[in-house]
What does this fold into?
Amino acid sequence: MARNLTSKTVEAWRFAISFLVDRERSNAARREFWAQGSDKCAGILNDLGLTRTEFDDAMRLPYASEDLLTPAMRSVGIDPDSFQTLEAVRGGMSRTCMTCPHRRQCRGLLAAFDFENHYQDFCPNSPGFAKLLEQGRT
Ligand code: SF4
It folds into this structure.
């Protein structure tokens, strides 16, 4: 019982620390972004299809400072540097990823090398991945 309580406490501490580290990283990334100047930032946000408010909201999501799209693509067999992929990223995949409500689950599965077995159940970019995989076969 006491051991179970201790392991739960340690788990809670680990979660709290990882949450705080993640928040700090995201806040730093957000500050760095806006430090580029409002004109440049407005251009980048326009390219991404995000308003300033949407960007700020996205930066509050888990692991907001991390690129999850590139490793997700690699894990399902998509070349993130191909012309079609880069077009898809510009066409909205990046935006979808930045505003995705499943970032914590996604990152956990990527870390466990298990994303490819589950992403179709929750990843909002799943249809886009299917299209790219199909294009890769033709
Ligand atoms: S689950 Fe969300 S964060 Fe992960 S690749 Fe898909 S859209 Fe991006």
